Amino acid sequence: MIKNSGYPTNKEILLMLGVGTLLIASIVMPGLGIAAGAIMKAKRKHDWKENQKEWKKFNVPLLRRNLKRLHENKLVEVIEENGQEVVKLSQKGHTKYLKYRMEDWSNKGKGWDGKWRVVIYDISKLKKSKQESFRRMLKQMNFWPLQESVYLIPYQCYEAIGYLREYFNIGEEVMVLEVSKLENEDHYKKYFGI
């Protein structure tokens, strides 16, 4: 997913932040100010060390430049967490992250294991915008609409659906079924190219 080129692309930065790779703000965005003692304390923590390894592969001045642009475009924000200022995705950044992840979840070229995945949802009318956004995401990921709130795909989709559940906060309102046979299966096989 992420190449070790030394040059951090915006996509790489957003993907790393999206999966929870912590970035201490003062390291790449000087001037935000965090006490030296707090940095030293954080450096001693195992989690901090592990997270920072991911960022060390990048050229720091280039990383700093791209983070500044992402911050100006409101894709990342600097917040205080456990007494440290850290770089996190903003709401706009989460949306961009989701678009990048959708590329990864693209179903083209995947092998079929002979099972169909049926996504069923019953999202409250009070969450109409979430319902519409969820439906739009399924269509963008090449799911076939069987009915208004029932979608089909022949590939593993648990990670993608899990992320969408969390992103839209609709956990119990979405269900994934795995089935081995469908009526009119040949029609769906043709659509998905299997």
Write the layout of secondary structure elements.
Layout: H1 10-18, H2 25-28, H3 36-43, H4 46-56, H5 60-72, E1 76-81, E2 84-89, H6 91-104, E3 116-121, H7 128-140, E4 144-147, E5 150-153, H8 158-168, E6 174-179, H9 185-192
Antiparallel strand pairs: 1-2, 3-5, 3-6, 4-5
Helix pairs in contact: 1-6
Description:
It is a single chain. A hairpin with a 2-residue loop joins strand 1 and strand 2. The strands form two sheets. The protein has a four-stranded antiparallel sheet, covered by helices on one side. The chain has a two-stranded antiparallel ribbon with strand order 1-2. By secondary structure, it is of the alpha+beta class. Helix 1 packs across helix 6. The chain has two domains: 10-95, no CATH class; 108-192, Alpha-Beta Plaits (2-Layer Sandwich), CATH 3.30.70.240. It contains nine helices and six strands; from the N terminus they run H-H-H-H-H-E-E-H-E-H-E-E-H-E-H.
